[in-house]
User: Which sequence fits this backbone?
């Protein structure tokens, strides 16, 4: 559900929305990711969570050039 509203969010904000501590939110997000419930990338140094799945470079270039259409 969070991925529908955010592409990138701070771990602090995600914890607030989930009404958990940052540590609990980090554990809950990691567990949901491992179970396949959602896709995310967590940057533990910057304390950010990215919910947007990146595309391979070839696909981005193909879409950009219009040769994939």
Assistant:
């Amino acid at each position: 559900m969070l991925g529908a509203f955010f592409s990138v969010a701070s771990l602090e904000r995600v914890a607030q929305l989930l009404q958990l501590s940052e540590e609990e939110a980090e554990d809950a997000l990691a567990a949901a990711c491992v179970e396949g419930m959602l896709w995310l990338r967590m940057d533990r140094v910057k304390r950010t969570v990215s919910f947007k799945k990146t595309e391979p470079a070839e696909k981005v270039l193909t879409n950009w050039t219009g040769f994939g259409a």
